[in-house]
Amino acid sequence: MVLRQPTLDLAILGRLSQGPSYGYEVRKHVNMVVGYLHKVSFGSLYPAFRRLLDRGLICDCGTERPLLVGSRSRRIYHLTHSGEEYLAQQLATTDPSALTDDFSVQFSLLGMTDTRNRLRILHGRREVTAARLTMIDSWSLTGLDRYSKELVRHSREVVADELAWLDSMVAAEESAIQRGE
Amino acid sequence: MVLRQPTLDLAILGRLSQGPSYGYEVRKHVNMVVGYLHKVSFGSLYPAFRRLLDRGLICDCGTERPLLVGSRSRRIYHLTHSGEEYLAQQLATTDPSALTDDFSVQFSLLGMTDTRNRLRILHGRREVTAARLTMIDSWSLTGLDRYSKELVRHSREVVADELAWLDSMVAAEESAIQRGE
DNA sequence: GTTAGCATGTAAGGAGTTACATGATTTT
DNA sequence: AAAATCATGTAACTCCTTACATGCTAAC
Fold first, then answer.
1. What ranges do the domains of chain A cover?
2. B109–A32: do the CB atoms touch at under 8 Å?
């Protein structure tokens, strides 16, 4: 995997908050957000639904038509009231210094919180990214061969682009505040 | 972690092929190559040295001075003859469609093989990256909210930059061939 | 009606991180 | 000489991936 359990849970809840859905479809959605590098495996997905059911954060409305037990038809899930509360509470306290894929999930859910929290997350991410850039620049590359140096040079560029992107996101949020939210 | 076991082994062997070294130092080196996102943990590092010792790919020359058993001084390792063979054989058969960090290790070791194999690896990576870009472009973004769309747009850009970088690497290798290796 | 893809689910095995534990070396 | 950092090592815990298994649905 690459997605931590709490993050996968968050991604599933986030998807369900936009309407009922089922496992296979949710997976496709999550893969679009974080999956340009890897796919969420079914062995992670279904146990996650089980977890969320057990905690009462989602509920199982059965299959669409037949409603047979043990059937392999689509099982439609939707967010419960506690699920909504949990989601809102999680989004308000996420840690912006997270692995790339985990942060992607956070970013994709930015539309579900207020501007204040969005700025907390974006600012936080901007800081850790800036720190990473500083770290890379502090490395002495002497002793590295041509290809290793090229790799570090490229990595630096990727991080610098990331930083510029976050800066533009922060700027957009702040100008939205200026214009009166 | 994020580095697979075989990749970590490869990274360690690669470092040792440039001269004897010890765990702590090797870790710093590997972190420079793949570590701008995460660090190799000691719980992964030392068991890896154990593995390589057991397979006879590296050998333990003892500590620098005292040579006490059970001591916590630097333990210097160096590559054995079979270690060299193994490394060369692995590099010749690596899979360029690998997770980002695993590929980074491959890339950093490109200087240890011939141009032919370098082109195999770079070409292979170029293809999977191009396929990823095509996949992203095939996605219908309708139904996604503003932030999710922005995330996908940014992801596409990152992948496109990656592709351009690989293209330039391939071009450099090919022009090296033209100029007579 | 048969093939291919949609859809759900489980279990074993593998593998990493975290936390813990200890000793050596350098700096203040 | 105390504190900080370098350095090595182990084990429990967590948790993911892989492989397996089954049923439904649409297309040819």
1. 5-94, 114-178
2. no
